[in-house]
Amino acid sequence: MRRGLVIFIVVNLFLLTFLVHSVWTLLTLLFEDCSRDAIRRAEIPAPGSDRIDNRTRLIPKILHQTYKNASIPAHWREAQRSCIELHPDYEYRLWTDEASERFIADEYPWFLDTFVNYPQPIQRADAIRYFVLAHYGGVYIDLDDGCMRRLDPLLSYPAWVRRTVPTGISNDAMGSVPQHPFFLRVIESLQGYNRNWRVPYITVMYSTGPLFLSVIWKQHAAETTDEAGRVRILMPSEYSKQAWSFFEQKRGSSWHGDDARFIFWMGRHWMFLTACGFVAAALVGLGSWWVYGRLLLLGSRRGLSFGFGRGRYALLPLSRRRGSAKGLMELDERHET
Questions:
Q1: Which H, E and C letters describe 68-112, residue by residue?
Q2: Cα 187 from Cα 330, distance rounded (Å)
Q3: Please, are residues 308 and 7 in contact by the beta-carbon 8 Å criterion?
Q4: Which of 79, 80, 287, 331 has CB atoms 3.0–4.6 Å from 146's, for a disulfide?
Q5: pLDDT one digit per residue (tens) for the chain, 337 residues
């Protein structure tokens, strides 16, 4: 009985360790505040400050945006126009579906099959932004993000993304130098994360969206020691809703369905759901132990041993095992004689 208990505990600990290891990066994201790589408000020059011109510019002056064609919906035109008009000296590139597929075919043919076979259009919109930043560098901005001030202060960092709520980073506003190691890692990881999780929202988020990007960022940050490879984080107050913020969020697109609303509900109650998960795991463990105990009891009533002996002998009825042992002793005595 004691040996069976030890083996039962060891097996369950092994399974628990395997599961925790599989989702360890996701678990650490729950407690990530991005403070280590945050762009502090004190280091960002105010609009019109002389300090802006004294900073070394690393990121090229290119604005990237994506849409299925060149006909931008009316509710996004104001946001698009605000970014273009604030940056007349920046090159502007709108990546339509046609232009995106042609770019991937010409520059990254190894990814073309994955790109065209994404089940959701938003996955292609996510992927192309990573590729153009890795290839050309510049700043990517979602069409529902309007510009409140010039982005020049953000061009002094080799790469930056923004923090999102409740945790991790988002992919709606990003900047990078060409060939930055983080975005190279991102585009190289896309095929490995291209899985169908049956729930559309989770599939998008974890294959190309912010959750995917957050996981790759955590892996990259853990291995990066040099400043050139570092990814800086634009914090929420510098992103939007403040007088000194860079962006203003407009009405967004809605590829989200009912599954997304359920996920958002889970996000608002994640502590409660985490506690429920631990309780459920404990109940499963206790239930498994109860079943194991019942099997032992049933075996003893039927004269069977469910011990952990070797070979078929461990499964023989107890009476037959005693008889076998007696026969072996008799053979041994005859041999000695």
A1: CCCCCCHHHHHHHHHHHHHCCCCEEEEECHHHHHHHHHHHCHHHH
A2: 73
A3: yes
A4: 79
A5: 566 667 667 766 766 665 554 555 666 667 778 889 999 999 999 988 888 888 999 999 999 999 999 999 999 999 999 999 999 999 999 999 999 999 999 999 999 999 999 999 999 999 999 999 999 999 999 999 999 999 999 999 999 999 987 778 999 999 999 999 999 999 999 999 999 988 888 899 999 999 999 999 999 999 998 999 999 999 999 999 999 999 998 876 555 444 344 444 455 555 676 677 778 877 877 787 787 777 777 777 666 555 544 444 444 444 444 454 454 444 445 445 4
